[in-house]
Amino acid sequence: MKLILASKSKARIRLLEAAKIQFETANHGVDEEELKLSMADQNPVDIIEKLAELKATKTSLGYPDSYVIGSDQGLDLDGKLINKASDKTEAKEQLKLMNGKTHELITFTVVANNNNVVWRHYDIAQLTMRNLSDEMIENYVEQLSPEMLNVVGCYAIEEEGIKLFNSVKGDIFSIQGISITPLLNFLWNNKILF
């Protein structure tokens, strides 16, 4: 069985490569914004689960003899799903909303084969942001690289984003984008880890 990652996420790729997992990447082709709009009345956990599931199942149609990994993350702030910032102005607004508060980072990881989900796992981390001044937020956002706008919450916990938080509770790998330890257990149980 080949392993396909239905993502071009650098963080997810980096985590699998660090574990020396043999895999290929594929574009999932899921319109994330359209799905979020159609499920706007649902809770954030259900939306993130559906996105991860669709990424895996849709991609698996093109790879019939493979396990396809789909993963998605969402930031739940007071029961509201926060989307990726479209520009630096929106990034500043989002960080000001999260300032001094605890939010939940939801990570769903799904494996599909021939359009069927064969495994799923989710993790919810709690991250508490420091009380930052507007100037600190402005300076942080102005130094962001363009790809950081494609990261939910505009922070990479494994990089400079860790400075924003005074408390992080949850699986560090899930926070980075994929629940790698449970996924490796799935691969082990299906004799494709080594």
User: What profile does the largest beta sheet have?
Assistant: 7 strands, mixed
The proportion of residues in beta strands is: 25-35%
Which consecutive residue ranges, at least 5 long each, have pLDDT under 50? Answer: none
Measured as a percent range, the helix fraction is: 25-40%
Tally the beta strands: 7
Class computed from helices, strands and strand pairing: alpha/beta
Rg result: 17 Å
Cα shape: globular
Element layout with pairings:
Elements: E1 2-5, H1 10-18, E2 24-25, H2 32-38, H3 44-60, E3 66-77, E4 80-82, H4 88-98, E5 102-113, E6 116-129, H5 134-142, E7 165-169, H6 172-176, H7 180-189
Parallel strand pairs: 1-2, 1-3
Antiparallel strand pairs: 3-4, 3-5, 5-6, 6-7
Helix pairs in contact: 4-5
